[in-house]
Every structure is written in structure tokens, then in C-alpha cells.
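Possible regression after last week's pipeline update?

I re-ran a chain I had predicted before the update to compare outputs. Posting the input and the new output here so someone can diff against the archived version. Not blocking, just want to make sure nothing changed silently.
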Amino acid sequence: MKWELDSIYTDASFDKDLQKAKALLKNHSDLKTDILQTQEAAKILKELESFTSCLIAQNPADQSAQAKSGEVTELDALYQSSLFTLGNRLGELDENAFKAILKQLSDIAFYLSELREVTKIKGAPHQEEIINALSADGYHSLWALYQTFTGKIKINGLSVGQAHNLMGVGDRKVRLKAFKDWTESWQNQADFLAQLLNALAGFRLKVYGTRNWDNILMEPLFLNRMEPATFKAMWQAIEEAKPAFVRYLKHKAKKLGLEKLSWVDVEAPLAPVENISYENGRKIILEQFEKFHPRMAQFAKMAFDKHWIEAEDRPGKAAGGFCVGFPKSEQSRIFMTYKGSPTNVATLAHELGHAYHNLCIEHLPFFHQQIQMNVAETASTFAEMIVIDQTIAAAKTDKERDQLLDDKLQRSIAYFMNLHARLIFEQAFYAERKKGYVSAERLCELMLAAQKEAYCDALADWDPYFWASKLHFYFTSFPFYNFPYTFGYLMSNGLYAMAKKDPKFGEKFDAFLGDTAQMTVEELGKKHLKVDLTKPDFWQNSLSILVKDVEAFVR
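New output (post-update):
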């Protein structure tokens, strides 16, 4: 249950790649050569970033890993500056000269067009150079600081990840006690974390101001290659479907003998569930992947056999789960804490979906491996759905089916309500941050209001310190780390509906994943699903499948 990292880097090879990437970024030649060298440097940078993120996750107190991360952050600043310079050079070309470059580098034409476009909406070159230079030891260091600080937090002697797992156990008394301890612990750290969050948001807003960006969602939508109309259509469809999911929450409360669910009851099992060993979790995933797409099952087996997964339940690890790709090595690594719940099995399948996505794009030039978060979450939630749906279909009793269906619907609540609360909170927080410092007390008020709105006030209590404990709010490489999850979930649901009707869908799925970094999401929808994502129809159809799950659960 521990991963293997030694084959990726030794200290010597890490330093060698660091220096090589720097050299590639310092070379100034003709435009074509500089583009190719920057692409090669980007590939090395991703390898280095993935490695340091693994080192820090397995032991946030590792000072050597933190030092390496600092070096990589400085390299990233150099890379961003180089990329911006390339974008300016592309922007200065007339149309004929630009078309000539695209013809020479046709295998990365989409990325170069996008790079040219983003340069136009950013600030003046000298401003962007200063921003990049200050980001390494300023802006991005705040994320590293959050990781180090929260990695040292102990909640009744448990790490953050271990304490969080306790809030999902079957015994309600244990859940409520764990939640009380959890809340008190974050409350004790709230003032410091409020300063951190304010500093991060303040920096981001200052940058947006220099670029004359008034809309706080402009950057995340652009990064997700997503039109505002698609964003609006998706949330409109979700809002219309929410009454069905409120019915689910009410019915679950009834099953648990409660008037209303508490915050920690939402993801609680209906009854004590049998512990699923790691070996059995592996078996379930491989069996269900095999039914969908043998290539996916073969890949997952290799990931298990080659020890690409860090799943051990031990103190001192970081919270959460993730998958990172190593494009140079053509490998991936998965991080999580496995305790044997059905949710842990689903999380493992989810992260293997990310790793499989990496496999489907590893043959492409690195600039066309730049998948954004929303489509990245499509592959992972699709893999999760394969395991969950097939397990439900194979249930031997109504009771077992009921429990599994509840486990599936918990995910819908997470994507449609929990993620929505995060989005509402961040929009409200940034609006207030423009006016000045937002206190810890006020952050709690904003979070409570966001949760009540997103959950349609369907719960008995809330998590006011969610803004402090949820690491996504502190992630500096990607603003608004919330709605892309919801996009990926609904997109994968639409893809899964197609897969159930087509026994040869596996190859089409691979083709879809292969295109995810070389077109907009609207273009992906038209090409692979034959739908217009800017209209609510696709989203409504995808949601209707999940509403049927609610109806089955209530029955």
C-alpha cells in the first residue's frame, strides 16, 4: 500500500533535470526552436512538480522536499515568463506569419493559438514579468505554507486525513464526536488561516486589477476552455433538479431515524458496512474495469503491480487524494488514505481514472497533454461510475442495493451541493475581499450562508470552518477549484449513458480523452457527443439519469 518513487528521481538526477530545464528556457533562438525548447522544459517541469508533490504529500514535514518544491516553484516562474514572452512573439506576428508557424508546428497548433490569445488578455509584458517573479516566493508559497501548516495539525492525535475519515463511519456517536473535535481544531487555527486566505485572494485580485479583469470567473473559465454560456446552462439545469436531491436527503434522514441530516450524516452509511480490504478493493475495480474496457483493466493492474499507489493509513500523511502524471517517465502516482469503506474504493477508482487519462495522452506532444481540470475530472468520475454502477447491478439483496445506491447519490450531493457551496462562498468572499480584509468570523458567516443556499437549507447543521479545512481554497495554480468537478461529473454521466448502449465504447472513450487538451469543451461536446453544451438540454438529460436513482432510492 506504499508507492515507489525511487525510479523517478535520485537527488542527483533531480538536480540535473532542474538545471536542464533552466538551460532550455534561457536559450534564445528562432521562434520555432524556442517553442520546442520551452515545450521540452515544460515536460521536465511537470515531472519535477509531480515528484515534489508526492514527497510533500507522504510527509509534509519533510524539509528536503519543501526545499525541492521551492526550487521547482522558482523554475515555474521562469517557465511562465518564457511562455508569456513566446505568446507576445506570436502576438506580434501578422496573420500570414502566424499561419506559417502553425503549419510548421501543426501538431501543437491548438495550444499555440490559445497561447497567442491569452497573451492578448494579460497585462503589459513588464507587468507580467514582475508578477511571475513575485509569485514564486509570494503567491505560490502560500499554498506550500498551507500544506506544511495543516500537515502538522493533530486532531486527538490523528492526522487531518485520519480524523476526516472518522466522520464517515457508521456509528453516529463517533461521527458527531469526530465532527465536534474537527470543528474545534479548525476554530483554533482560524485566525492564521484567515490571514493566509486573505493574502492569497488579495494577491490574485491585485493581479486581476493590473490586467483590467473585472469578472472573478474570467480566469477559471478561460483555463477550463469553457464558455460562460456553458457554465450558466450547467448550473441552471442543476438548480432545476435540486428538489429531487432534497427528497433524497429527507428520505435518508427518515431511514436513519432523524428529522434532518447533520452535516456528517450526508456521507454516512445507512447501516454498518463490511470493511473492504485493499486486496478486495483492487479486485472489485479490476473486475468492473474489465467489463467496460479491457485496456483500462490491464492498465489499472499494472498500476497496482508496479506500486504506483500510496494508500497506507498512517499518521503524518497529508489529507485528501490525488493523481499526478510523470510525462517524461510515462508513469503516474496516486495518493490517498485507504480505510476500507465503499467510498475509499470509489476514490481509488477515481484516481485510477486520472492515471488512465494520462495514458491516453502520453503519446501527444507535451503542449497537447495540457488537460484542464474540468475534462480531467471527466475521466476520473467516469471510472468511479463504472465501479459504482456495476456494483449496484450485482447487489444480491435489496438492502445491499439500497446501501450502494445511497453511496452513489452521496456523490451527486457532493458535486451539486457541496461543490456549489464552495463556488457560492468564493464568489461572495472575493466580492468582500475587494473592499478589504475578511475576518475569520465573517468567513464563517459567508460559508454558512453558502452551504444553506447550496443545500436548499436541507440539513440540521453546517460546517462553518469548511473554508479553513478544505485545501482547494488555498490552491494557487488553479483559481476556483470547484465547479470543474461538477462539469466533469455531469459530462462523465453523459458519456456513461452512451457507454451502456455501445459495447465497443471503450475505444471511443479513449479517443475522447485523447482530444481533451486540444479543443474547447464545446468542441469536444460537438465532436464526441453531438451536443451543444451551451444549451441546458445535455445537462438536463445527464441529470435525469441521476434523478431516476433518487426515485429508485425513495421507492
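Follow-up from reviewer: compared with the archived run. The longest strand covers residues 322-326. Marking as no regression found.
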